[in-house]
Amino acid sequence: MHGADASPPLRVLSGNALLGELLETFLTQQGRNGLRVTVILDAPWGYAYTAFEGAPQGRSTLIVTDNPCGEAWEDLWDLAPTALIAQQLSPGALLPTIDQTVRGQRLRLTPFYETPLTKTERRVLRLCATLGDLRAVGDAVGVSSGTLKNHLSSIYGKLGLRGLTDLRPYYFGGVTPADPRP
């Protein structure tokens, strides 16, 4: 854990600065500015991973995403935030969840999803989607290129993906060839 947290009690982190500012203003107007909570808006999708690593320690952390990919929800939950919300919410609907997390409740508000992937396959999926470089993915996972290719074949089969080019759109939007959502 880092030293004393000198940051403001309420922090809203977002890759979309305007969205973050609007939410922080709303929460301040609702009297939540004194709460020791960090709200991370996963905008754009994937932002929450780096924001969580740099978030102030010793406070409640709430991640909000509308990414429809169930594997991404599992990966975000593995970061161990106080709360994870995977749905579109109005700012007002966020207030009760913020209040609950500040009281120490750990909450997960995601649609039911049971991933067919193993934890290692999920990690390979996330790293391929974020890094894109197979050599870097193999190094990060600690496997040979042959073992990595076996993991990828398993992922493609389980998720109905055609190949490597489908991984990023799937992970950052939940789109599969059998599910061509815009």
Automatic annotation (TrEMBL):
<dbReference type="GO" id="GO:0006355">
    <property type="term" value="P:regulation of DNA-templated transcription"/>
</dbReference>
<dbReference type="Pfam" id="PF00196">
    <property type="entry name" value="GerE"/>
</dbReference>
<dbReference type="GO" id="GO:0003677">
    <property type="term" value="F:DNA binding"/>
</dbReference>
<protein>
    <submittedName>
        <fullName>Transcriptional regulator, LuxR family</fullName>
    </submittedName>
</protein>
<dbReference type="InterPro" id="IPR000792">
    <property type="entry name" value="Tscrpt_reg_LuxR_C"/>
</dbReference>
<dbReference type="InterPro" id="IPR036388">
    <property type="entry name" value="WH-like_DNA-bd_sf"/>
</dbReference>
<dbReference type="InterPro" id="IPR016032">
    <property type="entry name" value="Sig_transdc_resp-reg_C-effctor"/>
</dbReference>
<feature type="domain" description="HTH luxR-type">
    <location>
        <begin position="114"/>
        <end position="171"/>
    </location>
</feature>
